[in-house]
Structures are given as structure tokens and as C-alpha cells.
Amino acid sequence: MKRILLVISGGIAAYKVLELIRRGRERGYSFRTILTKGGEQFVTPLSVSSLTEEKVYSELWSLTDEAEMGHIRLSREADLIVVAPASANLLAKMANGMADDLASTALLAADKPILIAPAMNHRMWSNPATQENLAKLAARGVHRVGPTDGAMACNEFGTGRMAEPEAILAAIEQLSGASNKLAGKRALVTSGPTYEALDPVRFLGNRSSGKQGHAIARALSLLGADTVLVTGPTHEPDPVGVKIVRVESAAEMLTACQASLPVDVAVFAAAVADWTPAQVATAKRKKNGGAPPSIELVETTDILATVSKAGNTRPRLVVGFAAETENLVANAQAKLARKGCDWIVANLVGGNTGTFGGDSNEVALVTARDVETWTRATKDMVATQLAARIADTLSK
After folding, report:
1. Who's near 210: CB < 8 A, 6+ residues apart?
2. Of 69, 154, 183, 337, which one is the catalytic site residue?
3. Under CATH, domain 186-394 is a member of which superfamily?
4. Is the pLDDT confidence value at 64 over 90?
5. Does residue 341 have an active-site annotation?
């Protein structure tokens, strides 16, 4: 997968694409480029053409190009389509099937994998319309890298910066199979919350969105692993190419995990309830003007510890998560020793961290030997980094 159709849309981040082309060509990739009208405001056709050594395409109604059905040919002759930067406008067109210029028409006609690198103001990124468009694209199998947090050209700070060229190239290499390091390996990932029923209507739960667990399953699958995702209730789209097992309670999640063994690596990213009601009411509990009911709770079975101590069916590598509100490293180290797993990925939650339900995460990778703190990044980028570390470990 060496032939890339690069779509450059409007955004100040377009200047980074010149470096992406340069570094990509050093690694043997060839680029054909579609430059939108917005993209031309930030980089010139001459600068792009000089680096790609190819003609730059921009006009849907070019008599010369369209005599050869250029919008079809451009997508058909590529191995991979990369949209960088992917503006909010172009993402909206892609999500809703619009085709009013060469870029959107070529994307609608595409039958090859698509990778988007979004870039926009953080308020545009968090707008529900943009998030709905991203969910649609993810459900159709469109891959994404970034965006990241940081200062923006508008003098604001937040999530919306385009991923750096090296991160985009890493994603390209994953999709092209250049980093297919987990081929032949089996992976198990848990994600989301569990719901512990109180009665037919109510449940005990938590605020986990499942974004990090789903991203990890997707990243492991992109590296070639045969991946099973056991997920509690979430609104996240299913990762393409991953076997999905849906559960609600901690007991159901444990059963599904045990049924998925043996695997080479298990990553327990789900926020599993620690307690469950001793008895579930058969009818909805009523107020009736009296005192609130007394609910007896019992501990759920510890899924991470159970699999970590599973004897002959224990995965070669077991990775747990520790969501903490204080004493992050100390609590993670204690959990590592208590559970018997190999790694703990620890992150702070609650307060204004923005971890639960957010798009970014800041984690520490805790092992028996050391603690490695990773800089805050999108959950997709955390997943990519963790998957790469898993692949390196399993290859030894």
C-alpha cells in the first residue's frame, strides 16, 4: 500500500502536510493530491506539486481530467486515501454523502480505506454536529488520527490541532500493513461500564463512555490481531474488523471474557462495577412516602484478577486499567501487585480532568519495574501507543 491520494482541505494546519509529503516519500510512499479551494488559501499548488512531483488536482469540471473520469480514477488508483487536514466542512460533506467539488466527489466514489486527520477550532470539534458526523464516519469504517490538544492559531486552547506528520505516517503504516506486528495473535479487550440491576428500571453504573477501550480494540486489530471486544453499554460505534460481544453486568462480562480465552493479550479497559445488589427487585421500587429502601450490596467477581490467575489459560500479557481520583501512581502500583497482572494503565478521572466521556486521556504505564508517564493525547493516540508497546512485547 504505497500509493496515497492526499486530500488537503482548508485550515492553517495545511502547512504541516508539506512535511508529511516529504517524510512519506522518504519512506517510499507516492502521493497524488487533491487541493480544495480552502486548502489553496494556505498552501500553493506549486509547493505541493514540487514535493509530490505529481500534478495537483482541484477542479471537478476540468475538461481534460474529467474526460478521463478523474474523480473516479483518482480514488481507484490509490491504495489509501488520506484527508489532512480534514476540516469540519469536509467531514460534514463526507458524513452526509455530498459531492459538490472534486474532493467530496472523489471521497464519495472511493472504494479504498480512508484516513482522516481532523483539524479545527476546539468549539467546532466539540459541537454535537461534528461529533455526530464523526460517529457516522467511524461506523462506515473511516479511520481517524488525532486531533490533539494544544494552542491554536485563533489564540485559544483545546482539542482540535491536527496530528503531527509522524503520527499520521504511523497511522498510514498501520493501515498499509507495514506495522502488521500482531498478525496471528489473539487479543481480548473490555470496554465501557457495567450496569448492575436494582430492579427492572434502575441500575448502578458509572460514567465510562467506552471510548478508550474501543480505541484499543481498533488499534490492536489494525496491527493484525484477531480481536474480541467485550463491551458494556456504550454509544461508541463498533470498531471495524473486531468481534463484538455485548454485555450489561459484571457477571456477564466475566463469562464472556472466560469464553474468549485463550488469547495472547488481554486489556481490561472497562470500568467494571465493584458491587452489585444482593437481590434484584422483580418490580419497580416505589417511594410510597416512606424511608428509602435499604439495598444490600455484594462484591462482584474481580475479572482482572481472575484472568491474571487463570493458570494454563492465562494470556501471555495481561493489562489492567486503574481509574483514580487521587494518588495515581501509588494506587496503580498497589493494584498491579494485588491483581497479578503485568501492566496497569493508570489515569486520573473525575473533577475537571475530562477523561470520562472526553476525547483525550493522560495515562501512566505502570509495570513491576518502572512507571512511564505519557503526555496527554487523544484516546486514539493513547490506544495506538499502547498497541505498539504490546506488539513489541509479544514479538520478543
Report:
1. 191, 192, 193, 231, 232, 234, 235, 236, 270
2. 154
3. CoaB-like (3.40.50.10300)
4. no
5. no
